[in-house]
Design a protein that fits this description.
It is a single chain. The termini are far apart. It contains 15 helices and 20 strands. Strands 1-7-6-5-4-2-3 form a seven-stranded mixed beta sheet, sandwiched between helices. With 561 residues, it is of the alpha/beta class. Helix 8 packs parallel to helix 9 and helix 9 packs parallel to helix 11.
């Protein structure tokens, strides 16, 4: 029907709908125009702000660092040594003293959704100011890890952060973890969970995230730092304090500088890492997954670090390593040369203790090592793990030596240094370990009566070959472990010849609960005397009184040095 023939009320109604539709279209068009203008201004403002932040040295916000953003294309990417043909920034690459590495790359930081903190305390205004937060660092594991923890604390404190002693006090919790055994790994992850539940930002460092990158997906709100990246701890903590999550778990091929600042837990003791990683491929161990193959520090760098520590009052230097015997293989050096040059350089009154070594690589340097251990400023001490007294088990462990090789090293050491303190390790209940295998192990420890034995039940570590093998019954593992522990508690004769003798003792520890000062003889026997803080960092002649399985009680008789 033609429009003119419609009733007047119908024509008016249709006209009204047309006007309304036209108005809505116009309003939508104007809205789009205003949005486009606002978006252009916003992007311009963002770019200007980022330029200002770069010029002032402040890191780019993570929102602009998302892959594919316009800002990302203007940034200098930070990549890792795992990506060939790319550039990598580390502390050692920067010439100016006190300058830290470049800011974290686009793929290393991601923003977390805001979560209501558990604490009811009012927010601190200085929390997001660089270097103004409170950090709690807890370290688990070996002496290498302890040294790493001290370096991380040193960098954080040097940058201005306050180190505190508990999760409750901190803004960011740093867990320096250990993966050598299941209980040690679980202890670290338990602390991570506890800190998260307390509403704290968490950084998981150490061997656990370094050896198991799947944890990135399991703990998506936890920052992670590879053991080779410990000189980036300030960057990671700084981002974590802003609520960002950093995953810096790529392995670097170089080592952090020995000259980084550190906070010693014991002002008289210094742990110096001489090399990282090992050459072995043990079927039960995850440490190789975290630490990699051997990378050694130059002898000159180690000597310089020791002299600096001695100049700061240190009187006890301990060398740390996954395998001291393999030191220098990658740089044309060896452990004997290091020990001799280091002992030559140390000032009077500073004692040196060797680290852990596996039998295969120490055998070819045994003469030089013995020469070093006979020196007056080197403790007669050697940590030499055997793990099992059965060649069949050692082959299953892929230890690359035999019981006869181990015995050769021990016999050479004891022939040259009869009172040497030899510490060894035993794993109880390795897969396929028969009753005869275990009997061989007990026969070995009974033969040598080692003054120190680290005994451990076997734990199947995920990702290792031994974890896929048929395991012994838990009760069998427990029984063998208890048998070894009970045997070590009967070795009272290791100190039996000391009472009545007078020997020089170097003191560097206080037992506050028992009111005692603790020291060591040249042969590393533990000696305790009534507390006297004037003895700390010095040596004195001590008359030995009473011997126990763990220590000797004595009395200072003079000649304090």
């Amino acid at each position: 029907m033609p429009r003119a023939s419609l009733p007047i009320e119908v024509r008016l109604r249709n006209t009204g709908w047309q006007y309304l539709t036209t108005a809505m279209v116009c309003a939508g068009a104007m809205g789009l125009w205003f949005f486009a203008k606002w978006r252009g201004a916003a992007i311009s403002s963002l770019r200007l702000a980022l330029d200002l932040r770069r010029s002032s040295g402040i890191g780019v916000d993570d929102e602009a660092s998302k892959p594919g953003s316009a800002v990302e294309a203007t940034r200098e990417p930070i990549v890792t040594a795992d990506e060939p043909g790319t550039e990598h920034f580390d502390l050692e690459d920067i010439v100016s003293v006190g300058t830290r590495p470049g800011k974290l790359g686009a793929k290393e930081v991601r923003r977390q959704r805001w979560q209501k903190p558990v604490s009811s305390a009012p927010p601190r205004e200085d929390l997001h100011v660089p270097g103004r937060g409170r950090i709690y660092v807890q370290t688990h594991g070996c002496q290498h890890n302890q040294s790493d923890g001290e370096y991380m604390m040193g960098q954080l404190q040097d940058y201005g952060y306050t180190l505190v002693n508990s999760i409750e006090e901190c803004d960011v919790c740093v867990v320096n973890s250990c993966t050598v055994k299941t209980p040690s790994e679980e202890r670290g992850l338990s602390l991570v969970t506890r800190a998260r539940e307390s509403g704290k930002q968490v950084v998981l460092a150490g061997c656990v995230p370094s050896g198991d990158k799947s944890l990135v997906e399991k703990f998506k709100d936890v920052s992670m730092l590879h053991v080779t990246q410990l000189d980036r701890i300030v960057d990671v903590v700084e981002e974590a304090s802003k609520g960002h999550t950093v995953t810096l778990i790529q392995r670097r091929t170089d080592l952090p500088s020995l000259e980084l600042p550190r906070v010693r837990k014991d002002k008289l003791s210094e742990i110096i890492t001489i090399n990282a990683g090992c050459l072995g491929n043990c079927t039960y161990c995850k440490t190789k997954m975290a630490r990699g193959t051997v990378v050694s520090y130059p002898i000159d760098a180690i000597v310089a670090r020791a002299l600096k520590a001695a100049g700061e009052g240190v009187r006890y230097i301990e060398l740390a390593s996954e395998d001291m015997g393999a030191y220098g293989i990658d740089i044309g050096a060896n452990i004997a040369d290091l020990l001799l040059k280091l002992s030559d350089a140390l000032p009077e009154g500073v004692m040196l203790r060797t680290g852990m070594t596996n039998p295969p690589y120490i055998m070819q340097h045994i003469d030089g090592v013995i020469k070093a251990l006979q020196r007056p400023n080197v403790y007669s001490f050697m940590h030499l793990p055997v793990q099992s007294g059965s060649n069949a088990v050692l082959q299953g462990m892929r230890r690359e030596y035999t019981v006869e090789d181990f015995s050769y090293v021990v016999d050479r050491l004891r022939a040259a240094i009869p009172d040497i303190y030899i510490l060894t390790d035993i794993i109880c209940g390795f897969p396929h370990e028969s009753d005869e295998d275990w009997a061989d192990t007990m026969a070995l420890v009974q033969k040598y009566k080692f003054p120190g034995i680290y005994s451990s039940r076997f734990f199947a570590r995920v990702g290792t070959p031994a974890a896929k093998w048929r395991q012994l019954l838990p009760r069998v593992i427990k029984a063998r472990y208890q048998e070894l522990v009970e045997f070590t508690q009967t070795l009272e004769d290791k100190n039996a010849d000391l009472p009545g003798k007078t020997e020089r003792v170097w003191f560097c520890e206080t037992e506050k609960v028992r009111g005692q000062t603790v020291g060591r003889t040249k042969s590393y026997a533990k000696v305790i005397v009534p507390r006297d803080d004037a003895l700390l960092g010095r040596s004195a002649l001590v008359q030995m009184k009473t011997a126990t399985v763990k220590h000797v009680e004595g009395e200072v008789v003079g000649h304090l040095i």
